Description:
By secondary structure, the protein is α/β, with parallel strands linked by helices. It has helices at 17-29, 48-55, 74-80, 91-99, 105-112, 125-129, 131-142, 168-179, 214-225, 254-264, 308-315, 332-343, 384-399; strands spanning 6-11, 33-38, 83-89, 117-121, 146-147, 151-154, 160-164, 189-194, 199-202, 205-207, 229-234, 247-250, 270-273, 280-282, 302-304, 321-328, 347-352, 364-365, 368-371, 376-378, 382-383.
Amino acid sequence: MLKGKHIILGITGGIAAYKSVVLLRLFVKAGAEIQVVITPSGKEFITPVTLSALSGKPVISEFFTANTGQWNSHVDIGLWADAMVIAPATASTIGKMANGIADNMLVTTYLSAKAPVFVAPAMDLDMMAHPTTTRNIEQLRADGCHIIEPGTGELASHLTGKGRMAEPEDILAEIERFFYNNKSLEGKKILITAGPTVERIDPVRFISNFSTGKMGYALADEASRRGAEVTIVSGPVDISPSERNIKVINVESARDMLSECEKAFPDCDIAVMCAAVADYAPKETAEKKIKRENSDRMQIELVKNPDISATLGRLKKENQLLIGFALETDNETENALRKIKNKNLDLIVLNSLNDEGAGFGKDTNKITIITAKDDIQSFPTKSKREVAVDILDFIETKLHPQ
Length: 402
Ligand code: CTP
């Protein structure tokens, strides 16, 4: 999305400037070309050497480069940019921008820039809450700037309140959202199951698996970026979606997951069964912790969990699509084809534990997509985010959701 985009990263003098280094890395990794413009006080917090090494370009701070006398044209930089991102933006810089006080290279560049401008404020809570700051931020909004709201939490002053700069990942997501114009799933409702299920043995023990939910959440983010209304029914995981409008319903066991899916499915256009559902659960959950002194052996009777995808497969109407996942260790294609049939799926995404780069907890995946009509396509190892793009592209081009 940001490949080849020209972005000015404006850095001002706040503690949060250290986070700008991470933001710069994320932009570069996403394929953007970055020109850092830093205010004189920004350099007190982070060195130009770090920033130029990471961006691959000299950092601009002054109107003239001292030893060569070269003029740094704020007009040229302003015109070069596809976007300008000021992170962190201090109260002082926000005030200067709102009032046209162009006494440094950063504010001058802002006044020359024709591209969209994103401002991520960062300051202490009282400065943030001051009517002057509120007024200046409102002015920037009225002037067309996109304000990336600061978070609430512990601040550099050790006080707690609103003023923490948004996390670099969230700023990146905001810019990507802005440039993303594929709204191909607008008006579609998508249900995604993700993560493991947890089946309790007693109040402190459970049966589960190593699923982290990364693939399901990546799919949810990508579907949401394409304009879909997304609901994730999620087992316990440590992650959350990057996109703001996704509804997350947290569940623990396979039975809970099934009951939430049954409620959401009738309204859905597409359901993607990404969760690693535990196949069995203890027949009974002990109310009290099972003590080990009581016996040398322990036997837990397990009963089969409901098959969520097969249940939805039975409920599926003609205009609905049901997508499954299969993690296999042997006879991969044969097993996947059987699952398509047994669960009444339209498509299955197969990953094999024999492939390096696929499996639980990894940031990458290597998939083969198989449809109910025997269309088979294999993909190389990619990041889970890119895999999510491939899966949704495939669904949209080959299955044409109604
Ligand atoms: N699935 C489900 N409910 C279950 C088990 C699996 O909805 N109780 C879904 C998974 O989310 C996945 C697909 O079914 O989309 C295949 O899951 P997998 O674990 O590979 O297959 P199983 O049906 O459990 O068969 P097996 O474990 O014997 O391979």
